[in-house]
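Troubleshooting log. The previous structure file for this entry was overwritten by mistake, so regenerating from the original sequence record. Sequence copied from the archived sheet and checked twice against the printout by T.R.
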Amino acid sequence: MILVTGCNSLLGRRLVKRLIDAGEKVRCLDLEKPRDLPESAEFVRGDLCDDNDPGLLCADVDVLFHLFDVKSPVHHGRRYMKRVNIRGTRRLLDAAGAAGVSKFFFLSSYEVYGKTEKVPTAEYAVKKMKPVTAYGRDKLKAERLCMERHKAGPMAVTVFRPAPLVGPGTRNPITLITLLMALGVEEANRVYVAGHGENRFQLLHPDDAAEALMLACRSAVTAGKVYNLGSDDVPMQMEQMLEIKEKARLDAEIRHLSTSRARWLSFLLRPFKIDYLNKGHVLYLLANLILDCRAAKTDLGWEPKKGNVDILLETIRWYRSEKL
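Regenerated output below.
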């Protein structure tokens, strides 16, 4: 039996389908049942902090993929976010260890690195990580819980740090707001590029992420390790936007947002708790993020098939057909 928490996420839906297609018996957990969940998958509704017994959830489970988390405090508050991301992970680790789960895979985030000076950033290149977002801080604490559990044995724990997951079906509010402005605001179509658009920010297609997790499930060398995941082709923001504008035939004006104005707007909008020009978005607009993914390629034989432009073009096609 394989357990997948967060089965209704962008990655979770793809991973469950891959596992079912491979003939695996799958149990899933999330707050809402995916509309396209395969009939053979067992579904449990919950958030790991409610009345569900994590021991029953882990019964007969051999491999566990923990993808469930809360990325923003906007809807349920910061207290609930911490409960799910940290306490929920601890409860699941304890239950999995007691149930005899052999492999535990934890989905962390690129946000644990914060503002990185070394580009590309390797898994162990940053000695003291300082996340700038609440989500990044939660994930870093959860990672430490995972590594403590691995050292205690005998369960093998592996951590993945993916770049932002973007693709058809995305619920990423920054991606959706950006597409809305670029495609659906009549004559006011616009996209913003900070400064001169010289920074690079890596993305990851959920299919490539699912492939990495599937390869890790079959591997015997991942125990106790941390793996970055991200696309190989990461152009500068301005180059990326010009190529996408041409290939997707976007009738959108590119507006330059100065770095100082981006930071000022982020501070000004903070009390309104909106998912635009928040700390995570300003990081995307201003910082460089390219994760060094050589460890995943060497240990797992993993190769991402889609670059940033491929990912965004595919997402635009989905947005036009499904949202507009």
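The longest helix spans residues 78-99. Archived copy saved in two places this time.
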